[in-house]
Specification:
Layout: E1 4-8, H1 12-23, E2 27-31, E3 49-52, H2 54-62, H3 66-70, E4 74-76, E5 78-82, E6 88-92, E7 100-104, H4 105-118, E8 122-124, E9 127-133, E10 138-143, E11 149-153, E12 156-159, H5 166-175, E13 178-193, E14 207-212, E15 217-222, E16 228-235, H6 248-258, H7 260-265, H8 269-275, E17 278-287, E18 290-291, E19 295-297, H9 300-303, H10 312-329, H11 334-364, H12 370-385, H13 393-399, H14 404-422, H15 427-430, H16 434-443
Parallel strand pairs: 1-2, 1-12, 2-8, 5-14, 12-19
Antiparallel strand pairs: 3-7, 4-7, 5-6, 9-10, 10-11, 13-16, 13-17, 14-15, 15-16, 18-19
Helix pairs in contact: 1-4, 1-10, 2-10, 10-11, 11-14
The structure holds flavin-adenine dinucleotide.
Residues 8-14, 31-34, 48, 50-51, 128-129, 160-162, 166, 188, 231, 299-300, 307, 310-314, 316 line the site of flavin-adenine dinucleotide (FAD).
């Protein structure tokens, strides 16, 4: 008899997971706290667009929805750095044909919900999970308007309810699972560069734009309508922080002195500043990610991370693909499958945290450093000569399905080697010589 499952949360990962489960022949009910996004698009200064990379695509492809998502995706081939004078420097992400994609979070969520429903998943809105009975595999929901309580029992449940997951909290409270939430010292705020005439783009739409400024940065990714969603990441307190940005003058002075070319493109900067929320960022670590054969966590509920590698959603999509593959491997034996899922995904959840924090430093600081850009050029040359011996860390994370933990370990070893190489006298002049390639080879 086909299994009946409850998914808590119809966000990006819950929606994709429901598609996978429906395709296995399970009966799937998805309960979402929010209103139906499709009747009323709610963005309120959180119009986030997301970078979708290879492992996200791999999961979408296996669920059979890659071509639908491609219709709303904009290819992004490079980083474009904007300096204090508005001068631009490009850094390609990979080789010819390798790129990440910019996708609107809301559009993607709506698409995945529609596809899940079309394939047979049942979606229920305004249903907030308030309690879980893990022994009985039962979830209690409260209707957010009528406050009516409903108890749903199923064969198993999946917590896809995001960074502040109630399912995870119940696991931690009732089963003493490990849990840590670390908020970082930086907050973020979104701002929009509007489209130009007739929906034209005011910046190159096929680039991820960064204004790296050491301790803080601004970045922008294109939307389909010609606009760019931009995000300022800055410290909560101290120099150049959110704390000192309150009055119109403070905000306008800050942007025009630090991000002059950006400021010229945003006429209603202060209005946006006031109306868009400032949000916190944090890292979730928890373990295990399951209880017996009744429940498991996927996506941000298990491993919410900071957005600097653009991997939170990608990792969540990978969770769905791997979980589905394990159900195949274990012939749908839930007990063994859930245990294995926890064991193999946890190191990857940790890997994505390490990578994301590492890339924050790279983006906000290193991308403005000519020596760092040179290092990347040398690595690229070596990896093109010896693709079996070396893949740059960014490529491993964004253009392959190598596990995050492995990518992180290899990446750190490679970084050590490159630190040695960069000590070579006059490296700026000799970097292109064969000896440099041989030297890297000798370290391997
Ligand atoms: P969510 O998207 O948070 O969805 C959880 C769902 O559960 C929501 O719909 C919520 O309403 C619902 N819910 C919550 N509580 C309950 C409850 N009690 N009962 C019922 N339903 C509930 N990732 C990338 O891969 N690339 C990027 O470029 C990228 N950029 C980002 C930029 C920013 C600024 C941020 C903040 C994140 C970014 N991410 C990125 C991360 C990405 O947004 C998340 O990893 C992804 O949304 C996680 O999906 P999810 O479905 O697990 O959680």
């Amino acid at each position: 008899m086909s299994k009946e499952i409850t998914i808590v949360g119809a966000g990006l990962v819950g929606s994709l997971c429901s598609l996978y489960m429906i395709k296995r022949g399970y009966k799937v009910n998805v309960f979402e706290r929010r209103k139906d996004l499709r009747s009323e698009i709610i963005t309120a200064g959180k119009s986030i667009n997301l970078a979708l990379s290879t492992r996200g695509w791999t999961a979408l492809k296996e669920a059979g929805v890659e071509s639908e998502v491609m219709k709303i995706a904009i290819p992004v081939h490079k980083r474009t750095m904007h300096d204090l004078k508005g001068r631009l420097t490009d850094q390609p992400y990979g080789n010819e044909g390798e790129c990440i994609y910019s996708v609107s979070r809301v559009k993607m969520n709506v698409l995945l919900m529609n596809l899940a429903e079309k394939n047979g998943a049942k979606l229920y809105f305004n249903k907030k999970c308030i309690d879980v009975d893990f022994e009985k595999s039962a979830v209690t929901f409260e209707h957010t308007e009528s406050k009516k309580i409903q108890n749903i029992k199923s064969d198993f449940l999946i917590g896809a309810d995001g960074a502040f997951s109630v399912v995870r909290k119940q696991m931690v409270d009732k089963h003493k699972h490990d849990y840590e939430y670390n908020e970082i010292d930086h907050d973020y705020k979104e701002l929009l560069i509007p489209s130009g005439k007739e929906g034209s783009y005011l910046l190159d739409k096929n680039a991820l734009h960064i204004w790296p400024r050491g301790e803080f940065m601004l970045m922008a990714l294109a939307n389909l309508d010609g606009s760019f969603t931009c995000t300022l990441f800055a410290p909560k307190k101290g120099k150049n922080s959110f704390e000192g940005l309150n009055t119109k003058k403070e905000v306008e002075d800050y942007f025009s002195s630090i991000f002059p070319d950006f400021t010229e493109l945003v006429p209603d900067l202060y209005e946006q500043w006031q109306s868009n929320p400032t949000s916190t960022l944090g890292i979730v670590r928890t373990y295990p990610w399951h209880i017996n054969n009744t429940s498991l966590l996927i996506g941000d509920s298990a491993h919410a991370t900071v957005p600097f590698y653009g991997q939170g959603m990608n990792c969540g999509f990978e969770d769905c693909r791997i979980f589905n593959a394990l159900l195949d491997d274990y012939n749908d034996d839930l007990q063994s499958c859930f245990k294995k899922y926890s064991e193999i995904r946890k190191p990857n959840g940790d890997g994505v945290q390490d990578l994301s924090m590492h890339n924050f430093i790279v983006m906000r600081d290193k991308t403005a450093d000519p020596m760092f850009l040179l290092q990347k050029k040398i690595e690229k040359k070596f990896s093109n000569l010896y693709p079996d011996k070396w893949q740059p860390l960014y490529s491993m994370v964004s253009f392959t399905n190598i596990s995050y933990s492995e990518a992180w370990n290899i990446g750190m070893k490679q970084e050590k080697i490159m630190q040695e190489i960069m000590q070579t006298p006059n490296i700026e002049d000799v970097w292109d010589n064969d000896e440099i390639m041989q030297k890297i080879n000798s370290f391997l």
